[in-house]
Amino acid sequence: MPWANRICAVLALALCGCATPGGNPADPLEPFNRAMFSFNDSVDRAVLKPVAQGYRSVVPDLVRTGVSNFFSNLEDAWICVNNLLQGKFEDGGEDLGRFVFNSTFGLAGIFDFATDAGFQKHNEDFGQTLGKWGVGSGPYLVLPFLGPSTARDGLALLVDTRVDLVFQIDGVPTHNVLYGTRAISNRANLLDASSILEAAALDKYSFVRDAWTQRRRNLVHDGNPPRLKEDDDEDSR
Amino acid sequence: MKNWLRIFAAVLLAGFAQAQDVAPDALVRNITQDVVTVLKQDKDIQAGDPKKVAALIDTKVLPHFNFTRMTRLTMGRNWRSASPEQQKELISEFRTLLVRTYSTALSSYRDQQIDFKPLRAKPEDTEVTVRTEVKPSGSSQPVSIDYEMEKTPGGWKVYDVKVGGVSLVTTYRETFASEVKERGVDGLIKSLAAKNRQGESAKSGKT
To answer: How far apart are CA B53 and CA B99, in angstroms?
Structure first.
């Protein structure tokens, strides 16, 4: 699997190559990460974002929702497995229900009837499972094309991509079309968020890093992360 | 005439007292519903008219935020090393930046459903978290929006907002800290001001 090899190579490079002392202790690879971030950013600005904008303006709302639902449904199977691995059997059952229900009545997931029926969508992946098992996140890591990650989540992503249902479908051209469509669909869903980011960030790199790190922490703890010490008021009134 | 004035004053006072007594979760619900009602009706705001969005935020949202505490929390240890003038400037620039960000977020509002979670707090609590959940129209994964609120003599005020577990204060804290470390408090104020001006020109260039 060349994709996995490539990620491995980058990980190895990142982990041993450019560690520098000083700066943010949670981000020892900052010089590498910044370079990768600006690479991703220029790829996004040159290709992905314009294509996603075109996709949003040309393709009707209803069709875009269907495409987004289709990929979301494929994810549910692996989300189910991860919930079971984390011992969350109720959530896992809900995921299984979603997958079965939407794959059949929802016409291969194009319609998301399960949500309307009260089956809640969850957000899980193997990185979160490892986190739940107590594996530390390791240093922050920006992956080429894939964006923010950590050492743990980057390695877990290898597992995620290997079991990805899109990957199981035969035929390289089909793969590529599906991967491409998914990337465009996902990016289109993020267009509003990225314009908020443009408005909000003083330094886009550290803003994304610090927001993403909190988001991951929140996801690993399913919405209730333990309070960090630095959350406390530094100054007395 | 005098009676009229008295009644008028009584009504005003009653309204004022009410604003102070409103429970934090009810306050968030009221503001959200007010804002959403305007968003749904106003075609100019949907098209992203910056003036109208700013006016909406100014009247409905800003009075319920404590920007001083927000800025102080974001500055952390560096707050005390800033002079009173610098602190004032920081609050004002940070406030402008947040309002602009919030405007961008509001103009991308479509028709999302917002759920209000029951408040878990004791009556004597002076700090509470009000939890809400937004269901985006495209995907089915809801996004949590939590408001950290404190009780003040002027009613409950928001001092941090967490979107999907991402705190506004925490996200800006590192950026602020490294700016101060590299360029001092004045450097940070300059960066914020530059960012705000850049937003102004981008906006006028677009519309």
So the answer is: 10
Q: Name the residue among B36, B19, B28 with its Cα closest to residue B119.
A: B28
How does B125-161 read in b/e, with b if 16+ C-beta sit within 10 Å? eeebbbbbebbbebbbebebbbbbbbeeeebbbbbbb
Quick check: A231 and B137 CB within 8 A?
no
Each residue of A27-63: pLDDT tens digit?
999 999 999 999 999 999 999 999 999 999 999 989 9
Which residue is it, tokens 């290997």? Answer: A162
Nearest-Cα residue of chain A relative to residue B145 = A223
**Are A211 and B72 in contact (CB < 8 Å)?**
no
Of B72, B104, B195, the CB nearest to A235: B72
Q: Do A68 and B139 touch (CB under 8 A)?
A: yes
Q: Name every chain A residue with its beta carbon within 8 A of the beta carbon of B103.
A: 199
ipTM over 0.90 threshold: no
Closest C-alpha among B161, B163, B204, B179 to residue B90? B179
Nearest-angstrom CA–CA distance, B12 and B17: 9
Query: Which residues face B131 on adjacent strands?
Result: B146
Q: Which two tokens stand for residue B121?
A: 């707090």
* E strands in chain A: 140-143, 147-150
Residue A59: count of CB within 10 angstroms of its CB:
15
Which secondary-structure segment (H or E) carries A128?
A: helix A126-132
Out of A194-208, B7-21, B124-138, B167-181, which region has the weakest mean confidence (pLDDT)?
A: B7-21
Q: How far apart are CA A107 and CA A112, in angstroms?
A: 9
* Predicted TM-score (pTM) above 0.90: no
Of A75, A125, A68, A53, the residue nearest B137 (C-alpha): A68
Do B175 and A235 make contact, defined as CB atoms within 8 angstroms? Answer: no
Q: 3-class SS at B47?
A: coil
The contact set of A with B (CB < 8 A) is 24, 64-65, 68-69, 72, 112, 115, 120-123, 189, 192, 195-196, 198-203, 206-207, 209-211, 214-215, 217-219, 223, 225, 230-231, 233-235
- Among partner residues B80, B138, B195, which is closest to A68 by beta-carbon distance? B138
B171 vs A115, A210, A230: nearest CB:
A210
